Amino acid sequence: MHPNHIAVPRNFCRLPSGYGVVKICVSGAAETGYCGLDAFEKAKELGREIAKQGAIITTGATTGFPLYAAMGAKDECGFSIGVSPAATEREHAEVYKLPLDYMDVIIYTGFGYAGRDLLLVRSSDAVVIGCGRIGTLNEFSVAFEDRRPIGILEGTWETDEILRHIVETAHRPNNKIIYDSDPKAMVERLIEMVQKDKETANLTFNTHDKWDPAAKGAEYIL
Questions:
Q1: What's the predicted TM-score (pTM) here?
Q2: Distance between CA atoms of residues 82 and 3, nearest Å
């Protein structure tokens, strides 16, 4: 095992107003046999960039493209969260046959794949779409409707072309979707979009009276 895979995470990118750390979801196929020879290396490069730039990687706690992205993040001592369709660790490993590796925290939802997809996207600040299948398209749809910043990673697969066609023919303009073949550039742009969103639209934490939401520094809590 690489020593970084068990090292303490480092280099977190803080959001404005004490919101926390940027969380970037990596969505992709659990079965990547048709994705092309470079899919695994692209996924690892993506994960490494997420960690290098101080974000937390979130995945569906699954195999394939997301697993290799989580592996890449751990290569750089990043922090990895998996959101499982299972209700328990035993169900996760024995029924769903999903891994426990390369994740610092696994959240067991008990909601199956469809419910897991919804919680995964809504627990993340941005979503990267890699080579994928139906589950990936579902996560893209949730992110699209929730107006999350979305990065569609271009590669030897066809997922990026399919999604570009869907967006164009749906007549639903969305300025929060970006396309790029370079994981480093994509992660940089997504973090910038997330930070801008939180500065302008995070109304709960940008209150008019400037009180800290956690009451830090307050002498009394009324």
A1: 0.84
A2: 20
Domains of the chain, with CATH numbers?
3-201 (3.40.50.450)
Q: What are phi and psi of 169, to 5 degrees?
A: -85, -15
Q: Hey, what are 85's tokens?
A: 């369709």
For 48-107, write each residue's pLDDT tens digit: 999 999 999 999 999 999 999 999 999 999 999 999 999 999 999 999 999 999 999 999
Q: What is the 3-state secondary structure (H, E, C) of the chain?
A: CCHHHHCCCCCCCECHHHCCECEEEEECCCCCCCCCCCHHHHHHHHHHHHHHCCCEEEECCCCHHHHHHHHHHHHCCCCEEEEECCCCHHHHHHHCCCCCCCCCEEEECCCHHHHHHHHHHHCCCEEEECCCCHHHHHHHHHHHHCCCCEEEECCCCCHHHHHHHHHHHHCCCCCCEEEECCHHHHHHHHHHHHHHHHHHHCCCCCCCCCCCCCCCCCCCCC
